Amino acid sequence: MTEQEYLDELIERYPCLAPMKEQIGHAYEILKEAYESGHKLLIAGNGGSAADSEHIAGELMKGFRKKRTMSKEMSETFWKVDLEAGEELSEKLQGALPAIALCGHPGLSTAFLNDVDGQLIFAQQVYGYGNEGDVLLAISTSGNSANIYYACVTAKAKGMKVIGLTGRDGGKLKHISDETLIVPESETFKIQELHLPIYHALCLMLETHFFQEEN
C-alpha cells in the first residue's frame, strides 16, 4: 500500500476522522521531512499517553509491517568489524526511524523531579535531546497538561516542530503546535481509542516511504 492508501484506509475505517484528513496528512509531511533531513522524533505523554509514546517509538525503531533489511553496503561494514558477529547482526538488525519516548528514563526523570521540578521532566529532556529540525509529538487528551506544554515551549525555543495529538477543544496545544490533531471526543478513554489508529497510520505511512521491501 502507498502512503495515501494508508491514510484513505484510516478514514474508511474511522469515518469520524474524515474532517481531520488534511491535518493528519500535514503531520505526516512534517515527520517525513524531518526524517529525510536526518532528524529525530521525541514523544511525550502522561499515563495512557505515556504508553502510547512507547508504542509509537516501538513501531518506528524496528520493523512494523516490513523487514527493513540492512543494505548490502552496511552489512559489509559489520563483516569487516567481526565476520561471525557481523553476519548475525546484519541479518537480524532492522532499519530504524529514530524516536525517543521521553517517559522511559526513570533515573533521569526522578532525579530532576527530586532536585529541580517534576513539571519540567519532559522539558529538560527536550532541552537535552532536541535539536533544530527535530519534531516533538506532544500527546495530551485535554491539550492542557502543564508538563507537556512546557515541553512544547522548549521545543519551539530550540527550533523544533511540534505536532499535538489531543481531543476536546485542543486546549493550549492547538496554539503552540505546528499541526494539532484533535480527535472528535471529549472523554479521556475515547480520545485515546482514536489516537491509536492515527499514530498507527502515521507509522505505516513513514515505513512505506522509507523502507521498500515487503515481508
Description:
It is a single chain. The chain is globular, with a radius of gyration of 18 Å. A five-stranded parallel beta sheet has the order 2-1-3-4-5, with helices on both faces. The chain is built from ten helices and five strands. The mean pLDDT is 97. The relative contact order is 0.20. The protein has 215 residues and is an alpha/beta fold.
Give the N-to-C terminal Cα separation. Answer: 13 Å
Low-confidence stretches: none
Number of strands: 5
Order of helices and strands: HHEHHHEHHEHEHEH
Based on CA atoms alone, the radius of gyration comes out at 18 Å
Structural class: alpha/beta
Largest sheet: 5 strands, parallel
Helix content: 55-70%
**Tally of alpha and pi helices:** 10
Query: Which strand-content bin applies to the residues?
Result: 5-15%
Cα shape: globular
* Main sheet: strand order: 2-1-3-4-5
Mean pLDDT: 97
What does the secondary structure layout of this molecule look like, with pairings?
Elements: H1 3-13, H2 21-36, E1 41-44, H3 48-61, H4 72-81, H5 83-92, E2 99-101, H6 106-115, H7 121-129, E3 135-139, H8 146-157, E4 161-166, H9 173-176, E5 179-182, H10 188-210
Parallel strand pairs: 1-2, 1-3, 3-4, 4-5
Helix pairs in contact: 1-10, 2-10, 3-10, 4-5, 7-8
Task: List key phrases describing it.
single chain; 215 residues; alpha/beta
In short:
With 215 residues, the protein is α/β, with parallel strands linked by helices. It has helices spanning 3-13, 21-36, 48-61, 72-81, 83-92, 106-115, 121-129, 146-157, 173-176, 188-210, and strands spanning 41-44, 99-101, 135-139, 161-166, 179-182.
